[in-house]
Design brief:
2 copies of one chain form a homodimer.
Chain A (H helix, E strand, L loop, with lengths): L9 H12 L3 E2 H9 L6 H13 L3 E6 L2 E6 L3 H17 L4 H9 L5 H20 L1
Antiparallel strand pairs in A: 1-3, 2-3
Helix pairs in contact in A: 1-3, 2-3
The structure holds a DNA duplex.
Chain lengths: 130, 130
DNA sequence: AAGTTATAATTACACTTGTAATCGTAATGT
DNA sequence: ACATTACGATTACAAGTGTAATTATAACTT
């Protein structure tokens, strides 16, 4: 069975996101990195780490006195799951209305357009191959 | 100040989504409609309606003994806010990686592709106009 | 008018989340 | 060896959520 991704709260996600960037990492490494962004108390971060361990989202390995943490789930899996959940909920599974919404909000940049074109042409290429 | 959209839980969203489809509606109308999808007790739905009223997401109008509820926030506003939140969180504000992810998961249908092309050509047209 | 009933309002209660503080213990300094 | 400290583990506690049950009240029935 592929990747069953547990529910992860917003605060927990921020911790995970640091771990995805570099791992394994000690609690202190994570606290330091996080503090560039979030003014969270060390104790808070440790709580979040514990909860992530309980949820089996991360693992640790004892190293002397402290632990080295690593992600157990991949960012990709999480991203795919969350994206699908949102698109299903808001657009009944269809992606294009989301893109249209961004377009209407002028949230599309030339980079995005170029990327979209490339995605489309790849998609069309693959259609032929089948 | 434009639409300040309150935080809305998943269960509350389901109720709101029924109201967006047809309003105004009585609590019973909503319960009935919702029960096509969710096996929720009438009491549960009433609780959710109350919470939505408190959050100022919906309003009501007394009609004889019961109330008629209507949305106070537009679905569009909610959708825009949630979409932006997700894209900011997962893709640092860039939409195209989300589309790429869907493409990779084979979640793009011909309809989506056609819609995307149209969005792109509109976008390009507008660039000229400026 | 009194009893019954349909509604809304209030209360309940366990679980999750944000945000730590405190406790126990193993390592470190002196 | 003993005191201090640096960790992780346990506990805390209010707000939000899911999921109703109970209570108050206004309307309908007889």
């Amino acid at each position: 069975m592929p990747n069953s991704v547990p529910d992860i709260s917003d605060a927990e996600f921020s911790v995970l996101d640091v771990l995805w960037q570099h791992n394994p990492a000690s609690a202190n490494d994570i606290v330091e990195k996080l503090n560039e962004i979030k003014p969270w108390h060390e104790k808070t971060v440790k709580t979040l780490l514990n909860r992530l361990v309980k949820k089996q989202a991360i693992s640790y390995e004892k190293q002397q006195r402290s632990y080295l943490y690593s992600p157990l789930i991949e960012r990709e899996s999480y991203v795919v799951k969350q994206s699908k959940t949102l698109v299903d909920k808001l657009f009944r599974g269809h992606l294009s209305p989301l893109v249209a919404s961004f377009a209407q909000q002028s949230k599309l940049k030339k980079d995005d357009i170029a990327a979209l074109k490339s995605i489309i042409s790849d998609w069309e290429k693959e259609q032929q191959d089948d």
